[in-house]
Amino acid sequence: MRLSQEQIVASIAVLIFAAASFALPGFFTPENIVSIVRSISVLGILALGMAIVIIGRGIDLSAVAIMAMSVAWYLQLLNDGSSDGAALMLVLAGVLCIGLLNGFLVAYADVPAIFVTLASGSFVFGFVRSQLITQDAVPVPSGHWLQSLGGLRFLDIPVEVFIFAGLAFLVFLFLRYTKWGRYVYYAGDNPVAARNVGMPIRPMLVLRYVISAVISLMAGLLTAASLHSINTRVVNSTLLYDIVLVAVIGGIGLSGGKGGVRNVLYGAALIGIMLNAMTIIDIPLIYQNLIKSTILLAAIIIDGFLNPRDEQTAQQGDI
Amino acid sequence: MLVDATKETIIRLEGVTKAYRGVPAVKNVSFDLRRGEIHALLGENGAGKSTLTKIVAGVVEMTSGKMFHRGKEISYASPHAALNAGIAMVFQETSLVPSMTVAQNLYLGTEGFLNRLRGIYISAQQFLQSLNFPVDPTAMVETLGAAKRQMVEIARAVHHNAEIIIFDEPTATLTPEEKRHFFALIRRLKSQGVSIVFISHALEEALMLSDRITILRDGELVSSGETSSYDRNKIISAMVGRTLSGELYRQRDGTQLRKAGKKVLSVQDLSMSNVVRNNSFSIFQGQITGVFGLIGSGRTETFKVVSGIYKRDFKRGGTIELDDKPVRYAVPRDAVNDGIVYVTEDRKSEGFFETMSIAENLFSGLLAAGREKSSVISMSEMHQLSSEWTQKLNIKAINENARVVELSGGNQQKVVIGRGLVQKPRLVIFDEPTRGVDVGAIAEIHQIINELADQGLAVVVISSYLPEILNLSDRILVCRQGRIVEEFSPSESTEEKIMYAAVH
What was the pLDDT predicted at B93? Predict the structure, then answer.
């Protein structure tokens, strides 16, 4: 039997884990394992949102900008003395607007998702940075609930791990057991057929980008909770590519209609273990980026082989 | 019409067969083309005309047989090789690059290492003028209309000094004025010694223009000879005169026909760009309405508008009434919710979900429309639905988790049909329901269609295959040039009569 991509990824993750436990001192300790899981929580949450979009044959390049800038604005509002509820509502409204805009442009204006989200991400970053906040990093005001959330532990495991697990379960339920979740797969597999059979293709597209934006906001809040501030320079980091890496390497085909939450978990596990091991070995960051990009490229090429789009048989002319 | 017997044969095909996945599209055809003649190639949709010419032009490779070009046995591996040898093909859908200018398209593939745009514009201008084509060489191809695009295609063929030019349905998109120009050009090319193969559904044009005529039917050559020995009736009977009838395609007499029930759908003056033109007709409950038309007659487009897939013209688009209430669907979903289901002719690209199982494909019909009220998916409901319909439609697969793309054409078609029936339609439109389907499955699909009509549904069957139309329909509509032009009762009509109405 041929191995599926997720099986390959899972076995590679286990292999690296075993090799690192054996070879690297300080890898196989409870503290380090907790730190691995913690490090992939935010990445994994972002990848959940990305997965929903990619399964529907789209991509959301504005995820990181929405994550960092919405929370930066939120903290700025708090620091300027707004009430918590008002600030949160305002930021949530902004995030929903961006999600709706992304979805509307992709669904109704027929602009390719990659350009829409690239542009909206840049816009969000530029607008918030220049108009709404005063410096790159915005701290969480002291005594705010985000601070206490960041310190919360349960059985010595940081709270974001549970939040990641909870969200993963919710997304799993959505994709697997709701009508709207199934629509994502049908639309990703064959959008024309899905439209013809009567699915609401365009409203669905909008919904996916809105979900992705809201998940990004949650990931941002968790980041602020654990770091006690948010640094907007993360928008220009490689985080975005790490998210796509997690989704694609886990086996969510860029051609749409394939994969699920399990693939995100496998991808996140592999990337988390790898990054942690590279940090322990002390590979410089630039080489880490090189290794990651090589893996992403390889994953996309393998994805192309495993999930080919069959154009040949689609062409049935007059014979 | 004078043909010089001494004229040399330039292309000769001997016993050419081409099979797609074992199904022959062209069977053992021998054909020859002489220098400086216009040779019309006629036949129904799917008779093998396009395939035969594509073999000559190197677009498809023959399965067996021989081809001689100027007496030498040869087989062109690519259209490019054929073009270099002097064989050009002008396709139905033009093969120009839309984002390039006319001049760039003309010289595509023959550019030098460095191109001076001004230089090629000037020479293109001169060249187009010498052909008497009023086309601006600096215009982008995407801004041109169908007729001008065709002129560019022809100019490109002439520019390559082609000695053989194959035209696939060249006049389908042209206006009468443009047609006259086109015919004049063809005659001029002929006088220059160019041999022309001309595929057409327009018999008058073939009779008027050609020197010789070859007629194909079901992939076989049935008749070939000097044009002067043919007339319209002789061509039509050669095109349709089948020996095959048997169990599958039996003509029915008047007593077996179903009576029309209540009028479900009434369409008046429906128009969509220039594909559907002022089309009017009605569809009734409890019977099968067969719709026959040749390719380009607008039959598929008409029913795609009815089922909400395409939108009719906003202004002067006509009216569609369902149960005497006017409707205008923006998306297929609205049509599906009103009980109109369209079963596509192209199941691969707009029918099924290829990575998914039979069960998921069938279930999508239920999920999609407003029939499934609950937002939560019940897996047991899906499996129950799947086993019910795989049994009902006799869908054969290893198990219900088999991916649809792995099934045979007949089973794929049954999945697509089943998915439509799950939606409990009142009006089902089958577009080419048995295309690419094996004989056993054809009988089963016909039975399904008949049962639906017996249950009182309004059923429409669009088909290019006359025996299928005659066998299934209780009423036959013939579509030509974007509108229904004639209505027949199957007990009183023959293949010849229907074909006569469909060609022009």
Answer: 61
CA dihedral sign, ordered A196, A202, A207, A210: positive
pLDDT one-digit tens code per residue, A81-139: 888 888 889 899 999 999 999 999 988 888 888 889 989 998 988 898 888 888 888 88
Contact B50 A319 (CB under 8 A): yes
What is the C-alpha to C-alpha distance for residues A248 and A119, in angstroms, rounded to an integer?
22
| Cβ–Cβ under 8 Å, residues B282 and B323 | no
User: Are the CB atoms for B168 and B60 separated by under 8 Å?
Assistant: no
Q: What is the pLDDT of residues A208-230, one digit of tens each?
A: 999 999 999 999 988 888 888 88
Q: pLDDT tens-digit profile of A2-23? A: 556 677 778 788 888 888 888 8
SS3 content of chain B, % helix, strand, coil (to 5): 35, 25, 40
Report how far residue B361's alpha carbon sits from residue B18's, in angstroms, rounded to the nearest whole number: 33
pLDDT at A313 over 70: no
Q: Residue B100: phi, psi to the nearest 5?
A: -110, 165
- Determine contact, residues A197/A73, Cβ cutoff 8 Å: no
Greater model confidence, A294 or A143:
A294
* Contact status of A255 with chain B (Cβ, < 8 Å): no
What domains sit in chain B, N to C, each tagged with a CATH number? Answer: 9-240 (3.40.50.300), 254-502 (3.40.50.300)
Q: Half-sphere exposure of A153 toward its Cβ, with a 13 Å CA cutoff?
A: 6
Read off the pLDDT of residues B124-167 as tens digits, 9 standing for 90 and up: 888 888 777 778 888 888 777 766 777 788 888 888 778 888 88
Helix (H) or strand (E) segment spanning residue B325: strand B325-327
Which of B29, B306, B364 has the highest number of chain A CBs within 10 A, making it the mutation to test binding with A? B364
B377 CA: distance to closest CA in chain A (Å): 5
CB contact under 8 A, A197 and B356: no
CB contact under 8 A, A198 and B337: yes
**Contact status of A279 with chain B (Cβ, < 8 Å):** no
Question: Are A198 and B46 a contacting pair at CB < 8 A?
Answer: no
201-230 in A: which are within 8 Å (CB) of B?
201-202
Instruction: List residues of B whose CB lies inside 8 A of any A CB.
Output: 20, 25, 45-46, 48-51, 92, 295, 309, 331-333, 335-337, 342, 344, 346, 348-356, 364-365, 367-369, 372, 374-377, 405, 419-420, 423, 435-436
Residue B14 has what pLDDT?
Answer: 87
- Rounded distance, CA A292 to CA A241, Å? 9
Q: Do A178 and B376 touch (CB under 8 A)?
A: yes
- Judge contact between B377 and B354, C-beta under 8 A: no
Contact A186 B423 (CB under 8 A): no
The reply to whether residue B377 touches residue A316, judged by beta carbons under 8 angstroms, is no
Residue of chain B whose Cα is closest to the Cα of A178: B376
Reported pTM: 0.73
Cross-chain residue pair A179–B374, CB shorter than 8 Å: yes
Q: Which residue stretches of chain B have pLDDT < 50?
A: 1-5, 244-246
The reply to whether residue A196 touches residue B342, judged by beta carbons under 8 angstroms, is yes
What pLDDT does residue B242 have? 58
Q: Could you give the CA distance from residue B216 to residue B235 in angstroms, rounded to a whole number?
A: 10
What are residue B244's phi and psi, to 5 degrees?
Answer: -65, 120
**What is the band of A47 on the pLDDT scale with cuts at 50, 70, 90?**
very high
10 Å CB burial of residue A100 (0-12, 13-18, 19+) is middle
Taking every pair of C-alpha atoms in chain B, what is the biggest distance, in angstroms? 78
Structure tokens at B148: 């001008």
pLDDT score of A306? 66
**Which class would CATH give A5-304?**
mainly alpha
Write down the pLDDT at residue B107.
Answer: 79
A-chain residue closest to B377, CA distance: A177
**Which residues of chain A are within 8 Å of residue B412 when distances are taken between CB atoms?**
none
